[in-house]
Design brief:
This protein is α/β, with parallel strands linked by helices. It has six helices and nine strands, in the order E-E-E-H-E-E-H-E-H-H-H-E-H-E-E. Helix 3 packs across helix 4 and helix 3 packs parallel to helix 5. The mean pLDDT is about 95.
Amino acid sequence: MLEVLQLGFGYGEVELFQNLSFTMHESEIRVILGPSGSGKTTLLHLLAGLLALQSGDVRWQGESIRGLSEEVLAQRRLLLTGLIFQHHYLQAELTALENILVPGYLADKVDPDWGLELLNRVGLLDRAHLLPKALSGGERQRIAVARALYNRPKLLLADEPTGSLDRRNAEKVWGLMLSLAQDLGTAVIVATHDEHLVQGLPELRLG
C-alpha cells in the first residue's frame, strides 16, 4: 500500500538521505534506526505527507502524493494512515474514550462501540471516562495507540512511540501496538533508537 521511490531529502547543504526506495504491504513491519539527526522523523513526515517532497516520490495505494492539495492530502492521510508520536498529544479536556473517537468525528465515522473495543484491547476499558490527567504516562500512550488505529488505517507511522516510557511500559505499549496493527492488517513503520525492542524485525538504517 506504500511505495517509496528514489526518495531524497536534505536541509541546505546537509543531505539526510538519497535514492531511498522500498515498499510496504499489508501487515508488514519495518523499523527505521539511526542516530539523532539522521533523518528518522523527517522520513516519517515525508511518508505521512506532512513535509513536501524534494526528490523522488511517495505513493499511497499506487497514487503519488506529490502535487495533491493540502485538503485532499489531509483527508487521505486521515483515512489511510495512523500516526503515533513520542508524546501522546491527547486532548486534555476529553475523556479517554472521547480521545480515541476524535479520528472518527473527523472522518464522520463515529462508532463508540469500536472505541470501547479498542479501549478493552489496550487494557483500559475501566478508564473510559477518565481525563488524561488521571492516567499514567503508559496509559496515555496506550490511548494514543488506540486512537491511531481507530480508522483501521492501512499504514501506521510511529515516531519513537515508547521513547518517554520506562522499560516495562515501553514493552507493553510496543506489544499492544504491533498486536492491534497485525489484527487489522495494518502495515507498520516505526522510528526508534531502542534496538532492544525491535530485535529480529526488518530494518532500515539511516546515517
